[in-house]
Specification:
- By secondary structure, the protein is α/β, with parallel strands linked by helices.
- It has two domains: 348 residues, Alkaline Phosphatase, subunit A, CATH 3.40.720; 110 residues, Gyrase A, domain 2.
- The chain is built from 19 helices and 19 strands.
- Strands 1, 2, 5, 6, 7, 8, 9, 10, 17, 18 and 19 form an eleven-stranded mixed β-sheet that branches.
- It is globular and about 70 Å long.
Length: 533
């Protein structure tokens, strides 16, 4: 009798102990994940302004989170769309298909917005967009699938592409600031349309009020480390043209730190209205913030306006973290913060320090290339299109005349190398044979190659050079040979730590692991090793 009772007691203790071990090794899922992408954020800027920040924003994130100061972008910069798509899918344009803000349609020889979808008319906007062009699933998609559709997924952005890509295919909704009016907009791709909490802010005229506000310095102008680009004691930093159209005012407004405030305020409304983090399933909120300022064609920190933008964003992040922590508890939320690619210095700054610069004007170069090809192959418009350092050839005529495609592509690449400002030029065949796992320029070209959209020849520019339009205006796309941005993982069970190195494609699998869901279906990144509490 005693022996049998002892066995039962031992079995009970054993089972209880195993349960405790499992509970300790397998923490519950976070209730809420917030994915934040900040356009223009750079590690060196944070270090420069460190002593000016408060305790609850960047200092809290760096002090309590896992931080990678140099997260590598294995792709060429082609505008924010390619960067955002890479962040959320954990793979490159080679697989996810978004190789730029604009995609070249080889059938019509025309450029189209990367997310253009005639089947998804806009709400409060004339844009017709959807995430259908994104070929891979995102972390938010996998979260939605894993929960059987029960997880709530929303995104709030300043711009269209960024909001739609942050939300993914399976989201409940994505909203962004319309380019035409002072309203939150969305696309009819999402069945529920514009969320009520966004519509209420529209009815409150909150965006109009903010857009017509003067951007005043937080501190006395003389206290900033950098001089102001524009100084007006009464009106602040920014100048809105008298009698400007709503479109012009909104474009200016999107390049002020005031826009970050309305994004944060709408985020807090969404969290409350949707009761995010309280449903028993992990919910997801994607947010776009910006540090870009009007008249700045780079991401450099060289003005009081940019400095003020950082200080204001620091305050907004502090408020957001504090209120979410108060509502859900830090251990129940997971925050990811990273950034897009951008140039370190403007042309003006480089010139001021006698550093080589130059402007590459595509239209002139394409005309020269076409004249060369006519001299070799006969009269024809051989160059049919150009987009973001991609050259497109008349493949129909090439095939009809039985011209070797690899031969004409290579002739183009060789010719491009002789043009002033061109660093590297590769044919599509050369790029397809490259190893995308390396760190050289050809590897980044391979990763950025998108079937059906990339050109016959792809080239890069020399350091200090930028692409420019016919009117001389800069095409604001980074030309850096290696691009690194900060990454912060904060909250949940993450211990304060330094991550030595990571790739931007590692973010998605790391989040998937912490959320205990499958990786996105085209993910090529690897999960980051983290110390967990």
């Amino acid at each position: 009798m005693f022996s049998l009772l002892s066995k039962y007691l031992l079995l009970f203790v054993f089972c209880f102990s195993v349960g405790q071990i499992r509970a300790g090794n397998e923490p519950g899922k976070p209730r809420l994940i917030i994915s934040i992408v900040i356009d223009g954020l750079q590690t060196e800027h944070l270090m420069t302004l460190w002593n000016e920040f408060g305790k609850g924003g960047f200092k809290r994130l760096y002090g309590e989170g896992a931080v990678c100061r140099n997260t590598y972008y294995p792709i060429l910069s082609s505008g924010n769309a390619g960067d955002y798509a890479t962040i959320v899918t954990g793979t490159t344009p080679y697989y996810h298909g978004i190789s730029g803000n604009l995609l070249y349609n080889t059938k019509t020889s025309s450029l189209v917005p990367c997310l253009f979808d005639p089947l998804a008319p806009g709400i409060n906007t004339s844009e017709t967009v959807s995430p259908r062009a994104l070929l891979a699933t995102t972390v938010a998609d996998e979260l939605k699938i894993n929960s059987g559709g029960k997880s709530k997924v929303y995104s709030i952005g300043i711009h269209t592409n960024e909001a739609v890509l942050l939300a993914g295919h399976a989201a409940d909704g994505a909203v962004w600031l319309s380019d035409k009016n002072f309203l939150w907009a969305t696309t009819s791709f999402y069945p529920s349309g514009l969320p009520q909490w966004a519509d209420r802010m529209n009815m409150d005229n909150a965006i109009t009020t903010s857009a017509y506000s003067n951007w005043q310095p937080l501190n006395p102008v003389g206290s900033y480390q950098f001089p102001p680009r524009h100084r007006d004691a009464l009106r602040g930093f920014i100048y809105f043209t008298t009698g400007a159209s709503p479109t012009e005012i909104i474009a200016n407004y999107k390049k002020t730190p005031l826009v970050n405030s309305v994004v944060k305020n709408l985020a807090l409304r969404a969290l409350d209205a949707e009761q995010m983090g309280l449903s028993g399933n992990t919910d997801y909120l994607g947010l776009e913030f910006t540090l870009q300022v009007q008249g700045d064609d780079s991401y450099e920190l060289a003005s009081a306006e940019k400095e003020d933008s950082y200080l204001r964003l620091d305050s907004e992040l502090s408020d957001l973290l504090s209120k979410i922590d108060e509502k859900l508890g830090l251990n129940n939320i997971l925050v990811m913060i990273t950034a897009t690619q951008g140039e370190n210095h403007s042309q003006a700054t480089l010139n001021a320090y006698r550093i080589n610069t130059g402007r590459f004007v595509p239209s002139k170069s394409m005309s020269l290339l076409n004249l060369y090809l006519m001299a070799v192959y006969g009269q024809n418009q051989w160059v049919t299109g150009y987009n973001n350092k991609n050259v497109y050839l008349d493949r129909t005529t090439i095939e009809k005349k039985n011209i070797s495609l690899p031969e004409i592509q290579q002739r183009c690449a060789t010719f491009m190398l002789d043009l002033q400002g061109v660093q590297t030029a590769c044919s599509a065949d050369q790029i397809m044979m490259a190893d995308g796992k390396g760190y050289d320029e050809q590897a980044r070209m391979k990763n950025s190659f998108s079937k059906g959209h990339s050109g016959d020849v792809i080239f890069s520019l020399m350091p200090g050079w930028v692409e420019a339009n016919d009117d001389g205006s800069t095409v604001a796309i980074s030309n850096k040979k290696e691009s690194y941005v900060p990454l912060i993982l904060f909250g949940y069970t993450i211990k304060p730590q330094i991550i030595p190195s990571a790739s931007i494609t590692d973010i998605a699998p790391t989040l998937s692991y912490l959320l205990q869901i499958s990786n996105p279906n085209a993910c090529t990144g690897r999960g980051i090793f983290l110390e967990i509490k």
